[in-house]
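User: For my dataset I need records formatted as: sequence, then structure tokens, nothing else. Please produce one.
Assistant:
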Amino acid sequence: MSKRRDKFDFDVAVVGGGSGGYAAARTAAAAGLKTVVIEGGAEVGGLCILRGCMPTKALLYAAEVRHLAQHGATWGLKPGRIGFDWTRVMARKDAMIGDFAAFRRQQLSDGRFKFLRATARFTDPHTLELSTGRTLRARHFVVTTGSVVAPAPLPSLATAGYLTSDAALALPRAPKSLIVLGAGAVGAEFAQFFARFGTKVTLLQRSGHVLKDFDAEAGAVIEKVFRREGLKLFTNTKLLGARRVKGGKEVTFAHTGKTRRVVAEEILFALGRVPNTTALRLDRAEVRTENGRILTNARMQTSAPHIFAAGDCASPYEIVHLAVMQGEIAAHNITTPRRPRAMDYRLLINVVFTDPQIATVGLTEKEARARGVKYLTASYPFHDHGKSMIMEALDGFVKLLCDPRTGEILGGCCTGPIGGELIHVIVAAMARRMTVRELAAMPHYHPTLAEIWTYPAEELAEKTTSSRTN
């Protein structure tokens, strides 16, 4: 056994030091395995800390505070003109991200495992070649290299020049006008952020609604709010071209059978990200991919049984808490193969931090229909709810899906104030497999936003055939 072990430098090599990689490394090291983390990015911390969750939400909250102050007359306040200092807005974001990244660097370097700064690629199923010239061999691997901004779909767009979501986080000033390509979560969040800081925003979306992967009614609410706040929104578009013109950059697109043109100072490309796997030479490790994404089973195991993957490079969902769970499960299955664990996406949570926020857990109506799942649904609007009326947060609704026979909650959607917080009422309920009847019977303090869930729960409880209450 010892001779076989000597063939490897490490029991586990984790390629990528973001949230998923750190979760895998700490789990493997805690189980007593000799572990190394290899990170080749210019910065350490991963997408969430450096260019994703944390910086974007810091900026979105600043925009929300300014928006509320500008509308203070609603509550009888006289705030006057609400200006802003862009440099200070960005500096606060940078300081916070600096602190988060420093803590992650500390975690990676505290001695529980080896931490190497280098890029890596496979030369065979058990060997990595590092950019430092070193090679190392490991018994097992966990690949957690994340994602990168997707390439531009048109050569003319690259010629005209555009901002990526990464670049948008480091602008020295807000552009006077902006064309946002794509209205998924990233595009929608950035569009509202810039608009609330005075940028004239035009948002172009390929599909019929913004946030097409979410509840269709939720997307309709966001569209209404965006138009009310002065954003120009075009859906069902096809991007035709882009070029530099006097006064900025022009985008040409097809819409309602016509060719349209819009000019702005800048273009923000927000049409998604792709797995960061190109340089890994996964073919040499006998790891299968599909369009760059590493294929895994529910145990996060790839086509090479000793190689696992987690996070954006492998997951069908680019969500940080899932990357952490996947990293932990991958390491657990390496350390404890006789008691394997598998990912369960029944409690899949998604949040978009627009205002109002959109949050879902479990099945949406679209997904339930696609899977042939029978369900009942009921919703309730925020404009008829006491606490949201006090807050003047009247846009949106909550919605529940349940099993028609048992009443078990199958999914929830909250489009409204602090939706990302309120959805956790349903996450907790679904984790315990509660029925709508049980949710309706659970005490909710008045007046609170959370009590709005009781209304669709009560409606559904009357329609289900089960009488289970405990």
